[in-house]
Amino acid sequence: MAGFSILPVGWALGLLDGSLFLLFVCASLAYGLCLSLATLLLEELSFRPYREPRDLLRLTGAAVLENFGLRQLHSWWRLVSLITWRGRPQTWHSAPRQGFHAARSPAGVGRA
């Protein structure tokens, strides 16, 4: 997230050349794309979970699109959650049971 915020500010202030800024952005997207595609390739070679070539093609498309906005948004959510967490202990809250008071079982179901 630091790179996503520092690079545009440096470019806007004239501290970073436009072509160098574009190179950093392209390198970041290419690196993310390589990670996504390599992960998909390793899963396919290891487990072969996708029987249809169409499924693998759709996942490849999703891996490409992931790098244009979704990965950055996910990084933002992780940063916000890290800042708001601030070392608080995790607690679980219980949800009161409502039950199915009006529901009736069909004839013969649940009888011994």
What is the strand and helix layout of this fold?
Blueprint: H1 2-12, H2 18-47, H3 53-85
Helix pairs in contact: 2-3
Short description:
With 112 residues, the protein is mostly helical.
Discrete helix count: 3
Structural class: mainly alpha
Distance between the termini: 61 Å
Q: What is the overall shape?
A: flat
Describe this entry's structure for a reader.
The protein is mainly alpha-helical. The chain has one domain. Helix 2 crosses helix 3.
Descriptive terms for the model:
flat; mainly alpha; 66% helix; 112 residues
